[in-house]
Amino acid sequence: MANTKRITIFALYSKAFCTLFNFFTVNALVTGGSGFIGSNVSRMLLSKGVDVVVFDNLSSGCYDNIKDLPVKFIKGDVLDRDAVCDAFKGIDVVFHLAASVGRQRSIDHPQLDSETNLVGTINVLEGMRATGVKKIVYSSSAAIFGELLSPEIDENHPQNADSPYGVSKLAAEKMILSYTGIYGITAVCLRYFNIYGVNQRYDLYGNVIPIFAHRLFSGQPLIIYGDGSQTRDFVNVYDVARANVMAGLEYQKTDVFNLGSGESITINRLAEMMQEISGLRTGVDYQNERKADVKHCKANANKIMDNMGFKAQVPLEEGLREYIDWYKNTIVKES
Ligand SMILES: NC(=O)c1ccc[n+]([C@@H]2O[C@H](COP(=O)([O-])OP(=O)(O)OC[C@H]3O[C@@H](n4cnc5c(N)ncnc54)[C@H](O)[C@@H]3O)[C@@H](O)[C@H]2O)c1
Q1: For a tag on the chain, would you pick the N or C end, based on fewer CB atoms within 10 A?
Q2: What atom of ligand 1 comes closest to residue 58's alpha carbon?
Q3: Residue 79: CB within 6 Å of ligand 1?
């Protein structure tokens, strides 16, 4: 057979293969995809060959988190339903992370919290309905439980959300679950405990690990409220991204899971580890216990293991090393 004929046949087969391949390529949209967790979810989706659209208004997210990723970026607001509907055309699965995040932020800005977290979620669900998207993975929060009644929290712990943030995250979760029954979508809600890792920047409403990193690198003592014996369950964002991908691409049912490591450490030990790893010994400043702080908090990680086969893998010390390296090479260099 002449070479040109072989090439033509090869080209036709390749094109057919590519068409077929493209047909099976999953198209995902990540709301809040330029934020801390969303950018890590986007990166992990890309590593699985998924086409990713990031939809974010950049209010607390940072474009630098995704500037090197081959994603399509749409600067948009989940409160703009037309923009949501436009963005959702051709999407197979939505990872919904866009939110006004954190207890204290919600106490300072309750209306922004409810609008973004509840109305924004309704817009996402309506966008899915309008464009035929059938699957959503929702980033929920352990804040929906409010005051914790036992040291280890399973999915059946009472939901006594006691901040605007906890209430809006819970209402959004319930709204999503109601759409699964009425409109036939599939939803997986992942209730995160304390997440840390690369791309987590320090801000006014930040979590303890970026706050400690900020204070270490600016030569200030680490502030601990109470005697430091309180415990928390820290999960690395790599594991959270992995759970999102499993929930979005592999798990076929509607379900709700607590997402933690299933282990906890004291804040004293965390402070010690971060000083050890960074080599920066700035000391600890103990201040009065804060009223709203829970004493012990750990996820029961059985349900997500039994149903989805997910178990957090990154040991805290390894995750902290990676985070402190990233903080030094990114945040400290930027400042
Ligand atoms: N970080 C944690 O420990 C934690 C714990 C529990 C739950 N969560 C949930 O995980 C999700 C991601 O949180 P994160 O820690 O990455 O915070 P983040 O602030 O880094 O991410 C939120 C993202 O949403 C975007 N956003 C906010 N309002 C928007 C709007 N109206 N339209 C479009 N985009 C908007 C922000 O710009 C940001 O990129 C949130 O839903 C949060 O409730 C986080």
Answers
A1: N
A2: 37
A3: yes
Establish whether residue 137 lines the binding site of ligand 1, counting it when its CB lies within 6 angstroms of any ligand atom: no
Pairing type for strands 231-232 and 265-266 reads: antiparallel
Sequence-distant (6+) residues with CB within 8 A of 230 are: 266, 267, 293, 294, 295, 296
Dist CA 62 CA 40 (whole Å) = 12
H or E element at residue 218: none
CA of 99 to the centre of ligand 1 (A): 4
Do residues 196 and 236 make contact, with C-beta atoms less than 8 angstroms apart? yes
Residue nearest to atom 13 of ligand 1 (CA): 37
Residue at 142: amino acid letter: A
240 closest CA partner among 140, 102, 162: 140
Angstrom distance (rounded) from CA 220 to CA 284:
9
Q: What does the alpha-carbon distance between residue 235 and residue 225 come to, in Å, rounded to a whole number? A: 21
Averaged pLDDT in 10-residue chunks for the chain of 335 residues: 40 45 82 98 98 98 97 98 98 98 94 98 98 98 93 95 96 98 97 97 91 97 96 97 98 98 97 98 95 86 98 98 97 89
d(CA 89, CA 133): 8
165 is catalytic: yes
**Closest among 117, 120, 138 to 180, alpha carbons compared:** 138
Alpha carbon nearest to ligand 1 atom 3, residue:
195
- SS3 string of 41-65? HHHHHHHCCCEEEEEECCCCCCHHH
Query: Model's pTM, two decimal places?
Result: 0.93
CA of 52 to the centre of ligand 1 (A): 17
Domains of the chain, residue spans:
20-197+234-262+301-315
Give the number of residues written for the chain.
335
Please work out whether the CB of residue 99 comes within 6 Å of at least one atom of ligand 1: yes
